[in-house]
Amino acid sequence: xxxxxxxxxxxxxxxxxxxxxxNILSRIxxxxxxxxxxxxxxxxxxxxxxxxxxNTGVSARAIGIGSPGSIDHEKGVVRFSPNFPGWYNxxxxxxxxxxxxxxxxxxxxxxxxxxxxxxFGVARGFDHVICLTLGTGIGGGVxxxxxxxxxxxxxxxxxxxxxxLPNGPKCGCGSNGCLESLASATAIRKYVEDGYxxxxxxxxxxxxxxxxxxxxxxxxxxxxxxxxxxxxxxxVVSALxxxxxxxxxxxxxxxxxxxxxxANAGDFLLEPVEEMVKDYVLPTMLGTYxxxxxxxxxxxxxxxxxxxxxxRASKR
Amino acid sequence: xxxxxxxxxxxxxxxxxxxxxxNILSRIxxxxxxxxxxxxxxxxxxxxxxxxxxNTGVSARAIGIGSPGSIDHEKGVVRFSPNFPGWYNxxxxxxxxxxxxxxxxxxxxxxxxxxxxxxFGVARGFDHVICLTLGTGIGGGVxxxxxxxxxxxxxxxxxxxxxxLPNGPKCGCGSNGCLESLASATAIRKYVEDGYxxxxxxxxxxxxxxxxxxxxxxxxxxxxxxxxxxxxxxxVVSALxxxxxxxxxxxxxxxxxxxxxxANAGDFLLEPVEEMVKDYVLPTMLGTYxxxxxxxxxxxxxxxxxxxxxxRASKR
Lengths: 316, 316
Hints:
The structure is a homodimer.
Chain A: E1 3-8, E2 12-18, E3 24-31, H1 38-56, E4 62-67, E5 70-72, E6 77-80, H2 92-100, E7 103-108, H3 109-120, E8 129-134, E9 138-144, E10 147-148, H4 179-183, H5 185-197, H6 204-207, H7 215-223, H8 227-251, E11 255-259, H9 267-277, E12 290-293, H10 300-314
Parallel strand pairs in A: 1-4, 4-7, 8-11, 11-12
Antiparallel strand pairs in A: 1-2, 2-3, 5-6, 8-9, 9-10
Helix pairs in contact in A: 1-2, 3-10, 5-8, 7-8, 8-9
Family (chains A, B): Belongs to the ROK (NagC/XylR) family.
Protein name (chains A, B): Glucokinase
Pfam families (chains A, B): ROK (PF00480)
């Protein structure tokens, strides 16, 4: 069985033709151009779907879409998304079905990502999985007892908005001290700007302006022993560890997967988190879980979207 | 169908004969006498089971037991429990089956409590339920998509050990800042002892010694405007609100139930928690959940245990 996975973002999208083993047989990327309206976006995605099939001469069985925002997965509707201004209750699945003739299934992108790890990634074979994606924001996906946790109206698993520090920094959601406000790329940028404005002596500020400094820069300078970068890094590690510790006590998972761009920091991030999480888990939980870095890389979005279809097929 | 519910505690136990509507037809309480060993306890419980049946002339279909500690619900084994020193991998279900001839099902007591709320309580009819029991410790039970969340080795839903204040007070589990370390009856007793030792001026200390002051006293003095009692109360409300807010963002539940002895504080506790939780939930969650106080009262344990059997029967 071959399926289409669509990784739909606010700026870019990617469409891939994927087989059961997670090979991507053909792949197209493009600009989403949200400002042209939802119908135009649906048409553009549909044309890319046709292209990846004609490129390979293979017909797909169905299409899976990972989309940001609040998704009605039963109706295939994007209720709304901060990334898609003006989209309200847009029947994306139906539109693309009309253009392509294929069945279309949509999930929130973080949920799709978790399915991707479960089907193709480091969480393969496990029924109790927590996924965190560390990027501009922090997304979450949970598989418990083999099923995706969606919640009563499908907006659960917002792990980036667990509170890990009451009275902590303001979060984009309006609350204070959410994991996202402390450990996302956005949070790191704020720490850096704050350090810069306080004239802190750091090797970071000798190469670039504060606004050009990325989380990757901060992690590299931290590795090289820059005190300020280390302090930023430690705040990220602490917040992540508190959240992961609580999640382990709540879900008793087998695997916690750290994905997203910041997972590229590798063992330099993983090892201190593994160590510090032990401060927050119950003694009985020790030995019951592993924390792993995602291996899906830049294909995580397409594979997650494709796995929406594979998971449905496997549960029939 | 009539079933037996056994509420097994470290000090006391209660056995009840329960019908499908949650009526308790007969009830016996007694001392657990853990020091006499697990076989003696199993025999005592079995005799009480026979008594409640002979009292009413009704035979039960099966027995449900809510037990503290780590339970292997598939094998009916109490792996271990801080409340039962010396019990390791004790096959409680099998022992009681031998004595009574009835099928026996065991769950962790907090999980059983959640099933009780789901079957007979304020969470009846809902598939997405969070339960917190506020007592000496804080127990948790979660029903998500209609199923009890047990986790990979059955020790999940430890909601009392979510971290709500990194570097907060030491918790019995060894960590710092768990919900239990901030909002349990034990936490309140520690706040009171600390206030007493610092010679704080409070109406609390004019009636009783610090060691005799209960959470109920603190709540009553808080209601009457005593500043120290209010400060203790506010710490409990804050910690509860942070935890409940995170749980709503994680599970997108329909109902959050607050039970246990401290739920007797009623609206005085519920209303500020309802208000403060809004500071920690995503705006999209508003309107999707209710927070309710348990109505099961002193029968919560028996009804929870009985509902283990009713839930199994309903899912066959």
